[in-house]
Amino acid sequence: MLHPDKYPDITFQSTNVTAKSPAAGRYEVKIDGDLTLHGVTKRITIPAVVTVNGNNLRAVGEFSIDRDDYDVKATSAFHGMVRVKNKIKFEFDIVGRS
Q1: Which letter does DSSP use for residue 38 in this model?
Q2: Residues 6 or more apart from 3 whose CB is under 8 A from it?
Q3: Distance of CA 9 to CAs 6, 12, 46, 63, Å?
Q4: Low-confidence ranges of the chain (pLDDT < 50)
Q5: In a 10 Å sphere around its CB, with 0-12 CB exposed, 13-18 middle and 19+ buried, how is residue 31 labelled?
Q6: Which CATH superfamily is domain 11-97 in?
Q7: Are 12 and 33 in contact (CB under 8 A)?
Q8: What is the pTM of this model?
């Protein structure tokens, strides 16, 4: 569906980050930036929860995009009996250590 042979990369370039800290070591973050997928670039906001514990940082979040916004055509199987939803959901859990 995403044609990885023609579009092997999905990239995100952040342009702005805002955060609030409801508790020590925990941050609710909004990351604005440009997502390039399937050869199309769109501005999106990705929400995440970032926790800092000593030298460890963890960012967890999820976001969805609309396939039509990125010219990703749906495929079907079994003569149209199985369909792909219009939303593509991305989930991430990133750990960094210094």
Answers
A1: T
A2: 38
A3: 9, 10, 18, 18
A4: none
A5: buried
A6: Lipid/polyisoprenoid-binding, YceI-like (2.40.128.110)
A7: yes
A8: 0.79
Q: Compute how many other C-beta atoms are within 10 angstroms of the C-beta atom of residue 78.
A: 7
pLDDT (tens digit, 9 = 90+) per residue, 32-52?
Answer: 999 999 899 999 999 999 999
**pLDDT the model gives residue 72:** 84
Three-state DSSP at 10 gives: coil
Of residues 11, 59, 55, 9, the one with CA closest to residue 34: 11
Domain ranges of the chain: 11-97
Percent of the chain with pLDDT over 90: 66
User: How far apart are the C-alpha atoms of 85 and 98, rounded to whole Å?
Assistant: 39
